[in-house]
Amino acid sequence: MRKNSRSLLATIFLLALTVGACGRGDAEADLPRVVATTPVLGDVVSTVVGDRADVVTIMPNGADPHAFAASASQVDDILGADLLVVNGSDLEEGLTDVVEQARDAGVPTFTATDHTPAAPEEGDPHFWLDPRAMQDVVTALGAAVEDELAIATETEVGTYNAALTELDTANAAAVADVPPERRKLVTGHDALGWWAARYGFEVVGLVVPSTSTQAETSARQSADLTRTLTESGVDVIFVDTGRSPAIADNIARDSGARVVELDIETLPADGSYITLVERLTETITTALR
What we know:
Elements: H1 3-21, E1 33-36, H2 39-49, E2 54-57, H3 72-79, E3 83-86, H4 96-104, E4 109-111, H5 131-149, H6 154-175, E5 184-187, H7 193-199, E6 202-206, H8 219-232, E7 236-240, H9 246-255, E8 258-262, H10 273-288
Parallel strand pairs: 1-2, 1-3, 3-4, 5-6, 7-8
Helix pairs in contact: 1-2, 1-6, 2-5, 5-6, 6-10, 8-9
């Protein structure tokens, strides 16, 4: 990524850092509370609002958003939010009821996928892997924060969207070195559609034929995928870090492919949402060159 991108990322990091430095003491008692469901959204919200709101992220980093269920205290956080920020498109399968309960109780709710372009696959919730789609969400989120919490966000939204433009440009440059015949993806579940559509790749197979990790695959589907790998010459299966189903290893063994793990829904321990997408692109392009 270019030098000016690094400076933009440094600015983003400093904006978000103030939130992480604060405890839950008296200084936060009078701040509006924004509750985000996922770590990706929590990072984005923190950057947009800075230290002018108390940001609570419901899911711990590394949790499977498709399977996560909230504790009683987390339900209280959701129902007590001044603004609730959710991904939508059924990503948070286990939170559907409590999110609906919050809406019914009058909690202002921002649904990210209500503000994205049409998904590459119907219902695909993984929009954040396309930085341009995230720009639309950041712009709409800034407006929601201003409307609901009376917090000005123009500067933060502008800075963040500039960093997302730099990220998109860097991703496009990185994939340029991948030969056209290698731009075929087989993934653990249907999670890379947004990234693939943005950067000129094709998803040709899925270990779990669904946008959810909670779906199952049949023996016939596994056999079909093994044949797809063999006939297409694809030799890599990309799976979510820490969530590689045993069937992926079996398919890899039978087809001669290898399994490569990606952080798709988990923030790097030393980074942010932007770092997540940057490293995902690096992992994919390195494996396919």
